[in-house]
Amino acid sequence: MNRVYVCSCFGITDKQVEQHAAAGACTPRQIASATKAGTDCGSCVRTIQGLLGRGACPRRELLEKGEVSAVLATDQELAEAA
User: Fold this and answer.
1) Which CATH number covers residue 17?
2) Is residue 68 within 8 Å of 60, Cβ to Cβ?
3) Closest Cα to residue 80, out of 28, 35, 40, 39?
4) What's in the keyword line of the UniProt record (predicted)?
5) Tens digit of pLDDT for each residue in 20-38?
6) How many helices (H) and strands (E) does the chain have?
């Protein structure tokens, strides 16, 4: 198992960031909320941004459609995955 650490401060790997992104996290702030990555020294924030890319954000699309309950469910899933 090859681990690539994105956040040395909290031991967060690229796979963990990708898992949270797949669960609906679209921004470094949402990743930080779920994992604490990026909240200490901050040197990993750009790497997290790169991993998240500029693709479509299902969460943002739900908000634009007014489906707030679906966004809240996604938030709960992210919190449980942390």
Assistant:
1) 1.10.10.1100
2) no
3) 35
4) 2Fe-2S, Electron transport, Iron, Iron-sulfur, Metal-binding, Transport
5) 888 888 889 999 999 999 9
6) 5, 2
Percentage of the chain modeled with pLDDT above 70: 63
According to DSSP, the residues that pair with 12 across neighbouring strands are 7
User: 22 vs 9, 26, 38, 48, 65, CA distance in Å?
Assistant: 23, 9, 19, 13, 20
Q: Is the pLDDT of residue 16 over 70?
A: yes
Q: Which domain holds residue 23?
A: 5-81
Q: Provide the number of structural domains found in the chain.
A: 1
Phi and psi (nearest 5°) for 51?
Answer: -65, -35
7: β partners: 12
